[in-house]
Design brief:
heterodimer, A: 415 residues, alpha/beta, Aconitase, domain 3, 5-stranded parallel β-sheet, 14 helices, 32% helix, B: 163 residues, Aconitase, domain 4, 7-stranded mixed β-sheet, 7 helices, globular
């Protein structure tokens, strides 16, 4: 009987498929960003076929947003013109991060989505099968409305219990990546289930699914349930809900068990995401910059936690706290709730919705020898624009606690 | 025939093309001058057409940027030989026609002269005088590679055909 992955890929390819099969499947949504779209457009222009899937194609300018250089401005102009020409959706600077907006507006449980960005796997938090591909593969999807897929074997993660105070989804996924390694799930789908998942809010699921690619996985996927329905309803998309779950007798290549009660705040040390230890082991490591945002942790629930802790406190002198809401919608909500005011009062800097410093193009590039604690998903050497700098990864609450102390800090100190 | 350039485990797409050169993505010849810069600053200057990149597990980890295999291809590298590849990088390489070979690379060192015998699925190490077996790639992907990438496949076949 099918896993969640097999179920969706069977539906989209019109036959019963199993792990290991290579299928041609119909795609529901396609997303591209400013770093990968220009090459996809070039590829499309190179092949003279009728373009079939512009109506489900979404372009985003989020990586270099707004543009810091003329070369990138020209790339962005090219994207805008192509989108106009083929009547595809175009999101200029300020709208926000590709994955956040796809989740807010377009993705439905059971969808098959592809994106020219590795963190496309985020949509698994809503019960969609979504995966990152290169520009050419996404160009093929835009031209044909379909592409080929190898149906991945699934790993099942049974999640039990409930998070303790100060512990969040980011800590769980860092722990899992630490256990599996950065290639521990290469070519596989990570499927999450269990009591712990049922109690977990959708934004936590999105954080976890977002980082599935950090252990090499093709997708990270959650069943859709009442919490998914509620989340979509709040976005005004209640009618997009459908329940999709794995069969009880589905076969998995491996099974893992995690009790959320046992998870503690975790940090990934430079320069790999699986270099994970508990925050306790790193207390006292000096930080120069703290970045809160990205497709991993820039949602309203993340910003609320941060604002709560900043109440009546100031960022440590000498530390740069950068905060970027993941989308215009998140930004507006944060304004309404007084979150933005509190960050600014505490000494923080608000960046426009977008990927910000995470890709090393602009905004918050680190100096030689500097240390950044970030809520992003990658700490590879050179990631934030300087190979001589160091990046640690943690949850928003650990990040803000560290910004207050000027050193990596256990969030329990500020809760 | 070419010389081996040995790299370690988990070479990321940030090693292959650092984000600080993001603005050069639409200028691949310029971007290629920085290929592998954060893993070996000498590589881009000294690599010769026909050479091989040799690495451990999970080569190409990280982002979906297809510019990574494209700039490697631009250096004239014969193939990347690694114990394993990250998923998106693997697929991108097939799509752009960069040969990837899966083999146990422990015994290869920088400077070794290598020759690939595609017919017998073997790598010959001419410096150390031994052979290593290659792991074959799946049939469907081989067809795409043989067409010189997915776009040529589409131009030739007109559509994606079932397996």
């Amino acid at each position: 009987m099918p896993t969640l992955t097999e179920k969706i890929l069977s539906e989209k390819s019109g036959r019963e498929v199993r792990a290991g099969d290579i299928v041609i499947a119909r795609i529901d949504q396609i997303a591209l960003q400013d770093g990968t779209a220009p090459l996809a457009i070039k590829q499309i222009r190179d092949v003279e076929v009728e373009i079939k899937a512009c109506h489900i194609t979404h372009f985003f300018v989020d990586h270099a947003s707004p543009s810091p250089r003329k070369e990138l401005s020209n790339d962005q102009k090219l994207i805008r013109e192509f989108a106009e020409e083929c009547e595809a959706d175009f999101n200029p600077p300020g709208e926000g991060i590709i994955h956040q907006i796809m989740v807010e507006r377009y993705i439905k449980p059971g969808d098959l989505a592809v994106g020219a960005d590795s963190h496309t796997c985020t949509y698994g938090g809503l019960g969609a099968f979504s995966t990152g591909m290169g520009s050419t593969d996404v160009a093929v999807a835009i031209m044909l409305g379909k592409n080929w897929f190898r149906v991945p074997e699934s790993f099942r993660f049974e999640i039990d219990g409930e998070f303790s105070k100060g512990v969040y989804a980011k800590d769980l996924i860092l722990k899992i990546i630490g256990d599996l390694g950065v290639d521990g799930a290469t070519y596989k789908a990570m499927e999450f289930a269990g009591e712990g998942v049922r109690k977990m809010d959708v934004e936590s699921r999105l954080t976890i699914a977002n980082m599935a690619v950090e252990c090499g996985a093709k997708a990270g996927i959650f069943p859709s349930d009442e919490r998914t329905r509620e989340y979509l309803s709040k976005l005004g998309r209640g009618e997009d809900f459908r329940e999709i779950i794995a069969d009880e007798s589905a076969e998995y290549e491996k099974e893992f068990y995690y009790d959320l009660n046992d998870v503690v705040p975790m940090v990934a040390k430079p320069h790999n995401v699986d270099n994970v230890v508990s925050v306790e082991e790193l207390e006292g490591v000096r930080v120069d910059q703290v970045y809160i945002g990205t497709c991993t942790n820039g949602r309203i629930s993340d910003l609320r936690v941060v604002a709560e802790i900043l109440k009546g406190r100031d960022v440590r002198r000498g530390v740069r706290l950068l905060v970027a809401p993941a989308s215009r919608r998140v930004y507006l909500r944060a304004l309404e709730e007084g979150i933005i005011k509190r960050v600014v009062e505490a000494g923080g800097v608000i960046l426009p919705p977008g990927c910000g410093p995470c890709v090393g193009i602009h905004q918050g590039v680190l100096a030689d020898g500097e240390v950044c604690l970030s809520t992003q998903n990658r700490n590879f050497k050179g990631r934030m624009g300087n190979p001589e700098a160091e990046i640690y990864l943690a949850s928003p609450v650990t990040a803000v606690a560290s910004a207050l102390r000027g050193e990596i800090a256990d969030p329990k100190e500020v809760l | 025939m070419g010389k081996a350039w040995k790299f370690g485990e988990n070479i990321s797409t940030d090693h292959i093309i650092p984000g600080r050169y993001y603005h050069l993505r639409s200028n691949l010849a310029e971007l290629a001058k920085h290929v592998m810069e954060d893993a070996n600053p000498d590589f881009a200057k000294k690599v010769r057409p026909g050479d091989f990149i040799v690495a451990g597990n999970n080569f190409g980890m990280g982002s979906s940027r297809e510019h990574a295999p494209l700039v490697i291809k631009l250096t004239g590298i014969s193939a990347v030989i690694a114990k394993s590849f990250a998923r998106i990088f693997y697929r991108n390489s097939i799509n752009v026609g960069l040969p990837l070979l899966i083999a146990d690379t422990d015994s290869i060192d920088t400077g070794d002269e290598l020759k690939v015998d595609f017919e017998n699925a073997k790598i010959k190490n001419l410096t150390k005088n031994f052979e290593i077996e290659l792991t074959p790639i799946p049939e469907f992907m081989r067809r795409i590679l043989e067409q010189g990438g997915i776009l040529n496949y589409l131009k030739e076949v007109g559509d994606l055909k079932g397996t």
